Amino acid sequence: MSDTGFRGLTPSELMAWKPPYQEYIITNDILLDQGTMGIYGAEGAWKSMLALDMMYRIASGKDWFDFKTIASPVYYFQSEVPQRPLQKRSVKYQLGNQTVTDNCWMATDLYEKINTGWGSTQMEKELERTHPKVLIIDPLYNSTSTKLVDDYDVGLLLDRLNQWRKKYKCAIVLIHHNRQEEHSEGESFHYGTEEWFGSSRFKRWLDTMIYIQLVNDDDHSVDLKLTFEKTRHAENKIAPIEVHAKRTDLTFRRKTIGGIL
């Protein structure tokens, strides 16, 4: 594929084409090179903490809950958490997980919107400066000025993100909220990818969609359930996984029957 346009290939030419040296970032085709991923759930479901964990694991090439990663530079844009608490989280994570890497960058801005005007210009400068293989945007609602329920507005946003994927050769991970859950007679209902808040164009655009559910929450730790609701490129379905995380050191461990890995 050309950086400036497109050109059709015959079957023979396609067969002879050599793919990039790095085809994936997270194995099982969970996150491909220049791919897309959405991680979403209710408020307080530890989405941003999981995003921080993912950032460090990809940046250092460590397994992500038993899925192999290829060490890749990551840019993490956070529009909800000021720099001081982000610094505290980062330090706690590095100490707790004995992780030291400068193969990632963390930026906070509580006002600028990355899809338009100065915010977009600044993001492109940062992508040009750092050359990340993964861009994490957290959270989606506060990082853009897009009307998330408007198909046309969302289309403009996705065009912008696709432009970055092509120009800067990066995958994009969106951290987002679900819509308000339906409840009846004390029971809540979840309708899969339909629960992603906003236009249906998002779920068509995303390669992988992971729903996070807070299963248990106490003073010392949390238990999470990660459901792979959409895995466009995976050859086989990926079963949900359960994760145990400690508040004290931000360590994340995949749970197994009868214990924790």
Write the layout of secondary structure elements.
Layout: H1 11-16, E1 24-26, E2 31-32, E3 36-41, H2 47-60, E4 74-78, H3 83-97, E5 104-108, H4 117-130, E6 134-138, H5 140-143, H6 151-168, E7 171-177, E8 182-184, E9 187-189, H7 200-205, E10 208-217, E11 221-231, E12 241-246, E13 252-256, E14 259-260
Task: Describe the protein in words.
The protein is an alpha/beta fold. It has helices at 11-16, 47-60, 83-97, 117-130, 140-143, 151-168, 200-205; strands at 24-26, 31-32, 36-41, 74-78, 104-108, 134-138, 171-177, 182-184, 187-189, 208-217, 221-231, 241-246, 252-256, 259-260. The protein has one domain (32-176, 187-260): Rossmann fold. It is built from 7 helices and 14 strands. The protein has a 10-stranded mixed beta sheet. Strand 8 (182-184) and strand 9 (187-189) form a beta hairpin. The longest helix is centred in the middle third of the chain and has 18 residues, at 151-168. The chain is globular and about 60 Å long. The relative contact order is 0.18.
